[in-house]
Amino acid sequence: MTAFKAEPVLWIVIPCYNEEAVLPETAPMFLKEVTHLAEAKKISPDSRILFVNDGSRDKTWPIIEALSKKDEHFIGIAQSRNRGHQNAVLAGLMEAKDRCDIAISIDCDGQDDITAMEPMVDAYHDGCDIVYGVRSDRDSDTWFKRTTAQGYYRFLNKMGVEVVYNHADYRLTSNRVLNHFADFHEVNLFLRGMFPLVGFKSTSVYYSRHERLAGESHYPLKKMLGLAFDGISSLSVKPITMIAQLGFIISLLGFAGVIWAIVMALTGHTIAGWASIVCIVCFLGGIQLLSLGIIGEYVGKTYMETKHRPRYIISDRTWEDSEDDQKQ
Question: Quick one: 221 and 299 in the same domain?
Fold first, then answer.
C-alpha cells in the first residue's frame, strides 16, 4: 500500500485564456486557500499555484509574471500558441507531476468553489488517488444550459464514455496517477473521460458552482458539443457499432422490400410512382452520408494520432529551468 505524505506538496494547475479581467480577482483567492491549507498542516508550505497561459491575446501573461514576482507561491508557464483548454490542463499537469505529490486542476474564473480543495486534500489523506469535484446542483444555470448539460452527460454515458456525472475538470490527482497518465499519448484529449481509465482509488467531493466573477465564458454551446463529440470519438467505438447495427436492420428491410417487389410484379399489382422511390432514395442516401461522416471522423482522428505531433509546447516559464522548451 502506498504511503501518503503528511504534508504533501500541492500544485494547483489553472489554465488561462484571455483572463485579464478575472485573474486579479481569483489569484488572491487561490493564495488564501493554499495559505490556509499550509497553516492547517494539510499541505506543504512549498506548494505552488501554476498558471498556464494558453496563447492569450490580452495581458494575461504579464499579469502572471507580475504575480510570480510578488509571491513565490505563484508560478506560470506559457504555451507557444493557443492549443485549447484540454491541452493547457495537460501541459500544467505534466509540468507538475515530477515536482509535486498532488495536483488540483481548476479553471481560473472562480465558478468552481475553491474551498472544496480542503475536502479534496482530506480525501487524499484518507487514501484516495483521484478526487473528482462534482457539482451538487445547477441552480446558477439557465434552463437551457441546465437541460443541455444534463443531456450531455447522459449522452456520453450511453455512447460508452466513462465520465463522472456533473464533473468537468476540477479534480485532485496524486503524482503516481499523473505518472501513469503520462503513458496515455492521445492527441485528441478528453481528460474527464481519460482519468477514470487510469484507475486507482477515487471519490467525489460535491460543491455548488458560482457565477463567473468577471470576463466572459470561453465555453459556449458550440464548444461543448464539439468537446462531447471529441470525447465520444476518442474514447468509444460505439457509434461505429451502431452504424453496423443500423446497416443490418436496413439490409433486412431492403431484403423484405425486394421480396415484396417481386411478389407485386408477379401478381401484376405494380403501379408507377415516384414518391416512394424518392423517399427511399433520400432516406438511404442520408443514412449513407451520415455513416460515412462518422466513419470519416474516426479515420481523421486516427490520421492525426499517427502524426505524433506535440500536444503542447512551452515557450516561457516564470522560473529558470535548465531544460529546453518542453514538448509532449
Answer: no
Left (φ > 0), alpha (ψ -120 to 50) or beta: where does 6 sit? alpha
Place of cell 509546447: 313
Q: Looking at the chain, how many residues does it have?
A: 328
Three-class SS of 88-138: HHHHHHHHHCCCCCEEEECCCCCCCCHHHHHHHHHHHHCCCCEEEEEECCC
Q: Is 16 a member of any domain?
A: yes
- pTM to 2 decimals? 0.73
The residue behind cell 466573477 is: 213
Nearest in space to 109 (alpha carbons), one of 11, 170, 25: 25
Tens-place pLDDT, residues 132-143: 998 877 666 666
Q: What are phi and psi of 90, to 5 degrees?
A: -60, -45
- Res 228: pLDDT: 65
Does 99 fall in a domain? Answer: yes
Q: Does 76 share its domain with 123?
A: yes
Q: pLDDT tens digit string along 254-274?
A: 666 666 666 666 676 656 555
Write a three-state SS string for 188-230: CCCHHHHHHHHCCCEEEEEECCCCCCCCCCCCCHHHHHHHHHH
State phi, psi for 169 to the nearest 5 degrees.
Answer: -130, 25
Three-state DSSP class for residue 150: helix
Residues 107, 89: one domain? yes
Residue pair 165/206 in contact by the 8 Å Cβ criterion? no
Nearest to 105 by CA among 114, 193, 128, 25: 114
Q: Identify the helix (H) or strand (E) that includes residue 168.
A: strand 167-174
Shared-domain flag, residues 270 and 289? yes
Whether 314 maps to a domain, the answer reads: no
pLDDT given for residue 322 in this prediction:
41
Q: Which residues of the chain have pLDDT under 50?
A: 1, 322-325
Residue where a domain stops, chosen among 211, 236, 261:
236
pLDDT value, residue 325:
47
Q: Cell digits for 187?
A: 492527441
Domain residues for the domain of 255 are 238-307
